[in-house]
Amino acid sequence: MQQDEQKPLVKCRFCGSEKVGFTSTPCKDYISEDSFDLLECKNCQCLFTHSSHPDRDKNYYGVDYYNSEAGKFSTIIERLFRFNHIKNAKFLKKNFLAEQILEVGCGRGYILKELRRLGADVYCLESAGAADWILNNNEIKVYTINEEGEPDWPFEPDFFQLIIFWHVLEHLPDPIESIKQATRCLNSGGTLCISVPNASSLQARLNLPTWFHLDVPRHLYHFSRQGLISLLKQNNYQIIAVRAGDRLQNLFGWMQSIANLFTPKSTNAFFRLLQGGKPLNSVNKQALLVQILTIWLWVPLGLLGFFIEEISKNYGTITIYAKKRESISSIRY
Question: Which of 110, 130, 287, 288 could make a disulfide contact with 266, Cβ separation 3.0–4.6 Å?
Answer without folding.
Answer: 287
